Prior knowledge:
This protein is mostly helical. It has six helices and two strands. The protein has a two-stranded antiparallel sheet with strand order 1-2. The longest helix is centred in the C-terminal third of the chain and has 33 residues.
Amino acid sequence: MRTSELARAAAIPVSTLRFYERRGVLPAPGRDPNGYRSWTEEDVRTVRFLRRGQELGFTLAELSTFSAVSAQTRATGVVAADVAEQAFAKLAEIDARIADLVRTREAIAGLLAARCLDPGAACPVVEALAG
Length: 131
């Protein structure tokens, strides 16, 4: 299939495919006799894997490692403990971000609770941000 067909099948823009190629996470495609790039169904799966992994917060470097481990696992039958370790680390990172967001939300809610009743007084939200 051609590049535009791969992009359509993976539901991403062609520019994203080019980006994946430049970053080295998407292998160079074969070429048709006429010189057009020729992608396979395996390439569709790879691109979907990369897109979904990024949606879950993994970096392209992490996903590249996952792909390599996955290929090695298929070839050797070895269990991929490194992938699980990185996934647990990502989960801890997400939990930390959630905790930060909860603290931020509580701080903003606290500022909003201190409504300014006196029209001549400074707004508590502005004062807190300025101070």
